[in-house]
Amino acid sequence: MERLSGMTSDVRLEVEHLTKQFGSTVVLDDVSLAVRRGQIHGLIGQNGAGKSTLVKVLAGIHADHGGRVLVDGAPVALRTPRESRREGIAVIHQEFSLVPSMSVAENLVLGQEAGRVAYSAGATRRAAEDVVAAAGIDVGVPLATPVRELGPALMQRIEIAKALGQRASVLVMDEPTARLSEREREWLFTTMRRLSDEGVGIVFISHFLEEVRQVTDWLSVLRGGVVVRSAPTAGLPVGEMAELMLGEELRSTLGAHASRADDGHRVVLEAARARVGSRLRGVDCQLRQGEILGVAGLVGSGRTRLARLLTGVDAADEGVVTLRGARLAGGGPRGAVGQGVALVPEDRKHQGLSLRSPVGDNLVLMALQRRLGGPLAVPRSRVDGLARQLVEELEVHPARTDLPAGALSGGNQQKVLLGKALASRPDVLVVDQPTAGVDVGTKAQIHRLLHAEAEAGAALAVVTDDLEELYALADRLLVMHRGTVLWRGLPAQLPRDELLTMMATGVVPSHLAGAA
């Protein structure tokens, strides 16, 4: 990229030759880009391309990197989030950083309390009013409202107001529209344009490519930690964006295994016209014996809500979920496990594992009811024996059942999480992000385990951001967009670049409409 430092006075943020690695894995490789005063700069890339790592560098979370960051032409040291804010960089992360138990006012001033001798409700309210005034945004609710009572759109407003209340010259937004309705997105885009008119430089990260074209002036594409294109957005059609994100090595139209899809396979689990709030709207879905259904969609498409519905975590407001032709009984996830339906959730640390409990206890927890007859009827020696067997089969390292699960690496925690579900010998297995944060070897092992479950006759659904993984596992595909099923069919019918474009735009190509 052309060097900009010292050449132009309107560059708000510049990243020069940025490198970052975790162990031997290079996540950012000589990344350079510039965001000008009043520019909305789009940043796109597949999951794992390095976008979130770059955001964390700018936020002062990853200080141990090569290269340098400049704000208004001056090099800055971003060693902590506080230093990042002090240099005029405000970051809105993909996951909300608000504290649910605190009020809107308390959240707005959180992190800005330096020098305050004691907590004062009045002083906090006045400070929050100053933040809102500086941001120029109506947060939409009384400042005394507890954040836990708010919906995603209002929480997003508060995140933006908090960031802008810092009088930032650079605003970094990571997937800010993922949880917003159409009307709320338009409000956000109007706010972004107003801020850019006032001279703020904005980095806008989104998987929705049509949004990127609509709101950004300039676009940088990350692939494998490298900036592969940086150019005016107007010159990049959506199809070309998708190709740049994917790369030639990912453009094969076939998966890496022989498809097991067979219309003669029995439907084991089915959702019919299912609605869950605004997250799922009239969804139909079938899981067949001996097959893996790959569920594709962007953040906010409803894919995780579908996984939770199919496994009894969430109940349908309308429609029905049936197992072997009968309504899936109540009782939540525990009741579903008793009927042979198991979920491997996306968030292993907060929803999947008890990190303080031993590996062995985590592994056998779901097996107690269905496989071992209940916790009161099973000798401890039998439970321990099953735990040791699973550790060996899953190749968990270190191979100890007495260690706390939190002491394991992320990849080994993921093995335990999957093993916990497999230990119950489920007839239906729903897996959300099966290999997030694992190395190549562990990924291959998890793929083998999932294929083996399908070969043994289980019905599986796999939700994944990884397109390579999606095609390597899926016998059928289901594509979701904003709470609805957009398309369903066989992987061989849908090239990967067309899938990516479909997920981003919500438009099914005319030649595929008949296969939906």
Q: How much is the radius of gyration in Å?
A: 24 Å
- Please mark out the parts with pLDDT under 50 across 5 or more consecutive residues, or reply none: 1-8, 249-255
Query: DSSP helix count?
Result: 18
Could you state the CATH homologous superfamily of the largest domain? P-loop containing nucleotide triphosphate hydrolases
Secondary-structure class: alpha/beta
Question: What's the rounded overall pLDDT mean?
Answer: 86
The strand line-up of the biggest sheet is: 6-7-8-3-9-10
Number of individual domains: 3
CATH topology descriptor of the largest domain: Rossmann fold
Shape: globular
The CATH architecture assignment of the largest domain turns out to be 3-Layer(aba) Sandwich
CATH top-level class of the largest domain: Alpha Beta
Q: Estimate the strand proportion.
A: 15-25%
Give the proportion of residues in helices: 25-40%
Domain ABC transporter: 13-507
GO molecular function: ATP binding; ATP hydrolysis activity
InterPro entries: AAA+_ATPase (IPR003593), ABC_carbohydrate_import_ATPase (IPR050107), ABC_transporter-like_ATP-bd (IPR003439), ABC_transporter-like_CS (IPR017871), P-loop_NTPase (IPR027417)
Organism: Motilibacter rhizosphaerae
